[in-house]
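User: My advisor, Dr. K., asked me to get a structural model of this assembly before our group meeting. I'm new to this, so sorry if the format is off. These are the inputs:
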Amino acid sequence: MPATRLDPAKNASLDPPFNELYRTSRAAEFDLSGERFLTILEEIAAKHGSSVGMQAFCATLRIDDLVLARACAAGNERAWEVFLTRFREKLYDVARQITREDSAARELADTVYADLFGTKTRDGKRISKLESYTGRGSLEGWLRTVLAQEFVNTYRRQRRLVSLDEESEDGVQFAAALPNPDPPPGPGLESATDEALRALNPEERFVLASYFLDGRTLAEIARTLSVHESTISRKVEKLAKQLRKAILKNLSRRGMSRRQAEEALNVDVRDLALDLRTSLAQESIARAFTEKGAKTGERGS
Amino acid sequence: MKGEVNPGMESVRKLVSGRLKAQSAGPHPDADLLSAFAENALPEAERKHVLAHLADCGGCREVVFLLSLPQPADEQKVLIPRPRRWHMSLRWGSAVASIAILAGVFAARRELFRRASPLPKSAAASQLSSKSKVAEEKIPPDVDAMRALPSQSRTGNAPIPAPEQVRPDLKHMTAKMQRTLTFGQSDEVRVSPASPNLTANNGAIRDLPQPGRDTLDLRRAEPAFVPKTLTANAIDEKDKGEVALAPNNETALAESGARAMAKQAALKPHLAGTVLDASGAVVPNAKVTTVGPVGTETVTSDAQGRFAFDVLTPGLYSVKADARGFTPVELKQVAIAANQSPSLKLTLAPGTASETVEVSGQAAALELSPAYEISPNAVAARRKAERQNTANAAPASNKVAEVVPALQWSLSSTGAVQSSNDGGKTWQMVTVVANTSFRALSAVGASVWVGGSGGILYHTLDAGHNWTSIVPANQGETLSSDITRIEFLDLRDGILSTSSGEIWITHDGGSSWERN
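Assistant: The format is fine. Below is the predicted structure of the whole assembly, which you can bring to the meeting.
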């Protein structure tokens, strides 16, 4: 029995630090050989192109979670037992949290389970989704992400189907909205905006997209970036001013006078009242601010 | 509000939304990167990379926002130490009580001394001094007391120790004493009164109104050693009737404070004993050191040769006594279980050479070499010779696992318990109970838990030499379904999961359980 658990000959080839990692992880318990363990680590290091050196990189990984996931992917029964005791309930809980509905949660969790267990086969070998876990974040966080991704994909498919149905039923109403798109901004304005956006850093663009495009609340954005809500609030205001200034500057560089540039920018504003879609979007913005106001009020009391 | 009326912002919003929508995102980051991003675990460069994708990809943004949903409270249930606010207040309370006692004792004593009249009080006082017979010294009792105080503080201990006593939560009262999480009390001096006083003491405590379990524990408590703080000297006097005869308000307060302290002290498991020389005479001022799971603690034996430690963590302790002119003596691997308060007699032989004595035996009463006695309560564990050697070589440490070389534990595929002492090269079968297979195992140092079908659960504190069957119970319900997972974070805090989805949690090494 000891021999099958751990092959000292294979293990001997491991460098001391990796040997230590191997020993402290539960790899031996899950029948994961030292050789395989090292291969996994090397693959991950290669994939994420670490510049800090293998050992330092490995120190940032969740080795225990990684070992458990890979042992499960390899079909080790003991590992599955550990995995299920740790995550079975949790997966359903998270699914319920994401879908906010019981039967949908079951469905979502079951789909993900099938993926984790590996219903697809490649070259006659079962492929488990757990094989793609690399230990960058916690296994629990990864599972949460997989659930969220699956949900977003399914939800999008369903939404597409629903909107098609609705379109066939109330075609006129929806068809009416379509021929009235945003008045196309002039090509000069477009490129000036692109240029201004490119000058921003990724985080700023993320904030803008979440706030303007998705209508996320300041609180949601703040939570995602692990900063305070007020930071995001200030950032959004600052970014809007900054962008406006940058766009005007870019326009005038393209040969527009200051007045022309301002007019080009404000044309859209005058069209606002006529544009149904924009006004709907405006409501969502207003809601975002009201929510913020409500929250501030709560805090104050 | 601002956003609604700011036309500049609105035009920018519209333009920007349109342009952002028009961006095409590259390949989606995998779940790994997204989860690491949500957990704030990515290096800055990679984080920027992910953010750049997120700015352009609505789908991935949606995923990230789902990940940062506030987690419901029940998902964050982890084993954490209980809040300690009341604990702090208790600490302050006992500090105040100590001061009140001191004040009371001094006030009473001083008055006695000044008057020196044949009042009942002083009669009692002289009775006391004749009773205590401390070396037959012709010193007034309060001078004696005053002298005793500085001499104790000179030994490096706090003059007014504030005992950190923790009462178990009411909801845990169905099981045994709650172990506390108070560490590092090496400053505390505890002296143990002689047995007769103690009996009286216990009697007094018994009369106090106490909720459920505590009372039972106290009744069962051996009248052997109840550690008290120095300032609890008042108890001695009370036992001898003096305080009762001087019922002014101050002393009454002091008395109740001392009682409360003694009560709390009695709730704590502890390790106490007496230091004797070869002739059986007590050795005062001997340095007694314990090395256990939570570190090293040193106290000095009192005038009657007595010493006491709080044992907050079950485990293996080594106890060493040292006094000038004697050979130091060391008891190795005294195992202290959750509900035991062993008392030891440490006998010092004349001379200066160091001597280490290995105590071995079972849980039953021990017949050791004549010089060493261990009460039936003390469980001493036998160790293999090679492990002992390593243990001796190891410096004083605060982990059982380091005192004893790390054993690895595992379950075989057939459910048998096995251990390895060579880093997993070879495995030895460990027999817990014949013909039983297990499904879950957890080991912290020498404390190992195994569980399996039908709720069977065994625990060893001595690396597998003695196993105890544990039946987790809470409010009349016992664990009877299959145990599929055991996880102990340390010697006290552990969690069991069963195949039926039950979760059982202990915070005191298995003495009491909560069921979720």
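One thing worth pointing out at the meeting: Residues 1-13, 170-182, 268-301 of chain A have pLDDT under 50 and may be disordered.

User: Perfect, thanks a lot.
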